[in-house]
Design a protein that fits this description.
single chain, mainly alpha, 4 helices, DUF1754-domain-containing protein, coiled coil, FAM32A
């Protein structure tokens, strides 16, 4: 029990003293106001406007894309609902049955 009597009091950090907290710097309101006034007095330079023009290849691509889109719309508009369902059923019949649940067990 004699060993525990010598160790008394709270724990201490290495290096001597307690915890050193950082002090906050106080800002001078006059300096802040002067900085804001200086910032407002000089307007920012206008940003140059960059006009993007499409290349000839891009224009051709867009024309062909629009034409194909119109053909696709016309083609789908000509089909009746019955024809669309028949086409869907035909596609489903041609698909493999890979995703079907296999039968496991007897029978």
């Amino acid at each position: 029990m004699a060993d525990y009597e010598t160790a008394g009091g709270s724990l201490k950090f290495k290096g001597g003293g307690g915890i050193n907290k950082k002090k906050k710097k106080k800002t001078d309101p006059a300096k802040v106001k002067a900085a804001l006034d200086a910032k407002e007095s000089t307007p920012p330079p206008p940003k140059p406007i960059r006009v993007l023009e499409k290349t000839a290849a891009e224009k051709r691509f867009e024309e062909i894309h629009k034409k194909r889109q119109e053909e696709k719309v016309l083609k789908s508009a000509m089909k009746s609902h019955k024809e669309k369902v028949a086409e869907l059923n035909r596609k489903l019949e041609e698909m493999t049955e890979h995703y079907d649940i296999p039968k496991v067990g007897p029978g």
